[in-house]
Structures are given as structure tokens and as C-alpha cells.
Amino acid sequence: PNFVRNLQQGRLGSPPRPPLIKAPGDEDDLPAKLDANIVAIKKQDGLGVAAAGRERSAAPKRQSDEPRMPPPRPLVLEEKDGGQGGPRTDSGYDEQTTPKAWATILLDAQVPSFTLSGAEPSSSGDDNTAAASGAGVGINNPSAAVTKNVPPAPGLMAPPPRPPTLRSQPRPAAGSPFLSPAPGRLLPVPNRGPLLGGGSGLTSSTLAPPPTHSSKPKKPSKQVALQPGHSPLDWARITGPGANLRGLPNNSPYLRVTPSMLRRQTGRKGTDAWTVLGGRVYNIGPYVPFHPGGGPELLRGAGKDGTQLFGEIHPWVNYEGMLSACLIGLYVPEEPPKDDEDDD
Ligand code: HEM
Q1: Atom of ligand 1 nearest to the CA of 319
Q2: Residue of the CA atom closest to atom 8 of ligand 1
Q3: What residues form the membrane-spanning segments (predicted)?
Q4: What is the tens place of the pLDDT at every residue in 197-209?
Q5: Rg of the chain in Å (alpha carbons)
Q6: Which of 188, 195, 198, 228 is buried most deeply by CB count within 10 Å?
Q7: Residues 320-325: contacts with CB under 8 Å, at least 24 apart
Q8: pTM of the model
Q9: Whose CA is nearest to atom 34 of ligand 1?
């Protein structure tokens, strides 16, 4: 009998009522009276008491669900009920037959955020405490505008770690070129090097030549160690004006040297070493101990035209000036054979 009485009065199956805002003068038992009226109306309409109870049990649920409609932006998508319909059985969503992904609604989730201002406990105090107490949060107090360090709700990604702020960098010593003279200015970005002309004296990094990638790698030098008294200056001294290193008798005229004549002057077997450079024939024998590239290297051009070889190694060398005292004559083609017919 108690169960039937409670059922008739609508006390069974009713979820807790949502809080109502009461107007002044409202009676305290207004919700109970409203429920009783609903039961009476249902009876008049021929509906069963049980149906009325179901209606009442469903109505507050919808009411509590109404703020959730439409669903907020999905934070995490996951399938519920194995993809068979949605989570709400008292709405039209359960008429869906295809599997559907439903958003997990996290109304109470606190989205963790971060702040741009540092929160060093040493300099600015405990910002978390300030923010939690709500004191001083605002534009004029940005250091206090940090969020409560709410742990991320399940399914949410953890916030990224805060980058180190300039304020958290170690402050340079007094008198340092990195110290900004103007108060309130930001410190220079580290690892950029000092400015030019800043009087810091630390300009080596900015004056260093940039790395080049276009120059060829250097070949190893083939220069040899010259004997004492055989330096380039010594050669210049002995080849001054009036010097004669031709290897020919004095006052000999310049010769017309043919290829056959040239081939015999190789520097071997007691002969002088002649070479051709730019159409002129030089006696290079005296220069052998003065040649920075070594005697054997120089004699590679002896007895032949060494113009191409010379040019391949050191085209910048002024051979005409250096060998003026060694000039033999002009390099000329072989003389044509004499015509014997004239002798008849
Ligand atoms: C035609 C045969 C010659 C050959 C094969 C030859 C070869 C060389 C070589 C291999 C070097 C060393 C290059 C280096 O690695 O630094 C050299 C340097 C030199 N040779 Fe010759 N040379 C010849 C003729 C001459 C002649 C006729 C002269 C002067 C009249 C001369 C003057 C020099 C000078 C001044 C250097 C030093 C160049 C420098 O320091 O940049 N060479 N030569």
C-alpha cells in the first residue's frame, strides 16, 4: 500500500529536481504542487499514473540535458556503445542506424592554459597562488594573470612546456656590453654577438671571413729550398744591366735558332740548356740553381719549346725581364734545303 501511495503521489522514480529560481512570494512547496497537478491532469486525460511518473522522470532529465544542446565543440571523439547509436536514448539521436562517433562532452573540463609572463617564484612571487586567490588578476598585473595549474582532463593533451623567458635568463654582470642601458628595455637576444662599433672589443666573430665554397682547394707547393746565395734577389743582382749570361762569346749577335740547333742544347754532355719562350731562345743553364721550382723541373723545357709548359705552371712570371741577360736569339723554322740546280 505504501508503494502504491508513493507511486500515486509521484515520489517514486523521480530524480532530484533541478534548482528553481523562486520569485518573491512563491511558496516553498511549489514544485510539489506542480507535480501533483501534473498527476491530476494525466488522470483526467486517461493516462496511467505510471505513464505520468515516466513523464516526470524523463522531463527533468531533458531539462538537465538542455544546456548541452547543441553539443559543444567536440574535444575528444570516441565511439560509444560500440558505434550503435548515440548516448541519448530520450532524443531523436537514437534513431540513427549507422555507426556514429560522438563527442565526449567535458563541461567541467578546465582547459589548461599558459601565460607569456614568467612565473619565477624568486622574482615575482608565487603567481599560482595569486591567480588561485583571484587577487590582482588583470591587464595591469599581467604576471598574476596565470591560470590555475589545473591538471589536464583525461583525453586532453598536456600543454607544451613553457619556453624560457628573457627574465629567466641570468642577468649579465654590471658593465657588460649585453646590459641594456635603458631601463625597461628587453635584453638583447643571446648568441647574436655584440653590435659592431659597440666598443665591446668582441668583434672577432663579426670580422671573421665568411666560409667560401667556390675556391678550389690549394695544390701542394712544389717549391724547393734554394741554396744560400741563390735567392731571387741574388739572381736579380747578377742579371743587372750589362750582364751577359748567354754562354756565347762577347759581342755575339743574336742568333736565328732553328729546331735542329735547339735540340742539341739540352744541358747534357757539356752543352748549354736552351729553351724557347714566346718565340725567343734563352740560355736557362745559369738559372738552374736559382729556379724556385728546382733545377730538374726547369730543365724539362731544355732543348725544346717550353712556352706551353711554362704557361701551365706560372704564367704570371715575367720571364722576359728575368732572362734578358740570357737571350740567345730568335726561334726560327728550319732553313729550307739549298737548291742545287743553281749550281749547274
Ligand atoms: C719551362 C720549364 C719550367 C718548369 C717546368 C718550371 C716549373 C716550376 C715549378 C714546378 C715551380 C714551383 C711552383 C710551385 O709549386 O710553387 C716553379 C716556380 C717558379 N718558377 Fe719555374 N719552371 C720553368 C721555367 C721557369 C723559368 C724559365 C723561370 C724564370 C725565368 C721560372 C721561374 C719560376 C719562378 C719565379 C717560380 C716561383 C713562382 C712563385 O713563387 O709563384 N721558371 N717553376
Answers
A1: 30
A2: 293
A3: none
A4: 444 444 556 787 7
A5: 53
A6: 188
A7: 320/277, 320/278, 320/280, 322/235, 322/236, 322/239, 322/287, 323/239, 323/277, 323/282, 323/284, 323/287, 324/239, 325/239, 325/243, 325/244, 325/245, 325/246
A8: 0.46
A9: 292
User: Is the CB of 61 within 6 Å of ligand 1?
Assistant: no
- Ligand 1 center to residue 309 CA distance, Å? 10
**From CA 339, how far away is CA 332, in angstroms rounded?**
20
* 245 pocket-lining for ligand 1 (C-beta < 6 Å): no
CB distance 101 to ligand 1 below 6 Å:
no
Q: Which CATH superfamily is domain 232-331 in?
A: Cytochrome b5-like heme/steroid binding domain (3.10.120.10)
Give every residue of the chain whose pLDDT is below 70, as ranges: 1, 3-97, 102-155, 164-205, 340-344
Return the pLDDT at 218.
82
Q: Is 252 in the pocket of ligand 1 (CB under 6 A)?
A: no
Domain ranges of the chain: 2-68, 70-109, 117-148, 232-331
| pLDDT for res 250 | 87
Handedness of CA 311, 316, 318, 320 (dihedral sign): positive
Assess whether the C-beta atom of 285 lies below 6 angstroms from ligand 1. Answer: no
ipTM of the prediction: 0.96
Burial class (CB in 10 A: 0-12, 13-18, 19+), 297: middle
Tracing cell 520569485 back to the chain, one arrives at: 23
